[in-house]
Amino acid sequence: MKLRKDLRLRHLGGEHVIVEPALGMEDLSNIHTLNDTAAYVWEALQDKEFTIASVTEVLLDRYDVTEAIAASDAAVLVRDFEKRGLLTS
């Protein structure tokens, strides 16, 4: 899977946000806010194919957590990206 190429992470007012490009700024109902960890992963995955295992590795490289916690967090994050429609196959 990959992140959608038409989406860009922006830093606005101390927040990490993604706005659907087709909507523009006139319709702010479809804004995706990411926490610092999700934003870090988003930036690390740009233009790359990835799996939950590779997301786990990104988390392990950055944070001092066990592999089990990183794998669980990676699965939750990927499911969230998928649910929001931020991924392509």
Task: Explain what you see.
The chain has helices at 36-45, 52-62, 67-83; strands at 2-3, 9-12, 15-19, 31-34, 87-88. It is α+β, with helices and mostly antiparallel strands and 89 residues long. It has one domain: Orthogonal Bundle (Arc Repressor Mutant, subunit A). Strand 2 (9-12) and strand 3 form a beta hairpin. The protein is globular and about 40 Å long. The model has no long low-confidence stretch (mean pLDDT 91).
CATH topology: Arc Repressor Mutant, subunit A
Q: What best-fitting shape do the alpha-carbon axes yield?
A: globular
Instruction: Tally the helices.
Output: 3
Mean pLDDT: 91
> Any idea how many domains?
1
Low-confidence stretches: none
Assembly category: single chain
CATH top level? Mainly Alpha
- Provide the structure class: alpha+beta
The helical percent reads: 40-55%
Main sheet properties? 3 strands, antiparallel
For the termini, the CA-CA separation is 4 Å
Give Rg in angstroms: 13 Å
Q: How is this fold's topology laid out?
A:
Elements lengths: L1 E2 L5 E4 L2 E5 L11 E4 L1 H10 L6 H11 L4 H17 L3 E2 L1
Antiparallel strand pairs: 1-5, 2-3, 3-4
Helix pairs in contact: 2-3
Which labels suit this protein?
89 residues; alpha+beta; Arc Repressor Mutant, subunit A; three-stranded antiparallel β-sheet; two-stranded antiparallel ribbon; 3 helices; 43% helix; 19% strand; globular; PqqD_sf; PQQD; PqqD family protein
Summarize the structure.
The chain has helices at about 35-45, 50-60, 65-85, and strands at about 1-5, 10, 15-20, 30-35, 85-89. With about 90 residues, it is of the alpha+beta class. It is globular, with a radius of gyration of 13 Å.
